[in-house]
Design brief:
Chains A, B: It is an enzyme of class 2 (transferase). The structure is a homodimer. The first copy, chain A, has about 160 residues and is of the alpha+beta class. The first copy, chain A, contains five helices and seven strands.
Chain lengths: ~160, ~160
């Protein structure tokens, strides 16, 4: 399936659509407040990417490039992508939207870290992600999963 | 209500009881593997605290002291406690077990950070926790909540 992944702009329409997603939290609330208080402009860049079905947002994820100096997961240290809030709204699940978003992230050719909040291990395994060796000091309550681009050393701490 | 909060030891009984809790993840699996492989000893210390009803574990949390040098939440930088996996099993909810665990953490007189995974804002507000100003680079997909001991500067980044 060939879906068009778009970088989402911060505006009232996008933020209204975000309310359909389960993982609605401080990040979205903060964007809404910043927009209302004119701290950010309408149509500002956001760390969200999404796929529309018609004019309806049906899948989204957040993607942020973490600077190598904050890297605690990959060796040698290198910028990596943190991926979170990957979610497809119920009627559109199992149609390849989630896969399309993850493939989009992989095409940036940087290692990826994610910390899925829901039970989705099978999905992430299929996408080539693997668990880290748990380290309480680093991982605390997280269940980090990592993906490595081809040719990247698969050694993680 | 006066409940006895105990530091939990890593052993097969504890790990079996952990399976009753929803937030069972890499941390628990890793403890189990380490125990099976004799990497850690039976009855090793864990970062978990819990409350028993009879010989049944009915509430638990994880608590870890984060070194001031990794502090990104409190100013001035100071050691703080990360609290996660606070959970009470269904039949024992709304009886003060969760509150007892959080009060136990507060009595250590360090600032506390938590990132609740479930919708529980009312509970945390009642416990005196407040939201941070969201910062994408620091918080990514988290919804951090902070608590400050008396006399501690309430300034956070």
């Amino acid at each position: 399936m060939n879906y068009k992944v778009e970088k989402l702009k911060v505006n009232y329409k996008t933020l209204e659509e975000f309310k359909k997603f389960k993982e609605y939290g401080l990040q979205e609330l903060s964007m809404l407040e910043d927009l209302e208080a004119n701290i950010i402009e309408n149509d500002s860049e956001s760390p969200f990417y999404g796929i529309y079905f018609g004019d309806k947002l049906v899948a989204r994820m957040s993607l942020y490039q973490v600077d190598a100096k904050f890297n605690r997961y990959f060796e040698p240290a290198k910028d990596y992508l943190e991926l979170w809030k990957l979610e497809v709204i119920p009627d559109y699940q199992h149609k390849g939207y989630g896969t399309a978003l993850v493939e989009f992230a992989k095409n940036k050719n940087l290692p990826i870290k994610t910390n899925p909040r829901v039970k989705s291990k099978d999905f992430w395994e299929k996408m080539g992600f693997s668990s880290v060796t748990y380290n309480v000091e680093r991982d605390l309550g997280e269940n980090p999963l990592l993906w490595f681009p081809e040719g990247f050393s698969e050694h993680s701490n």
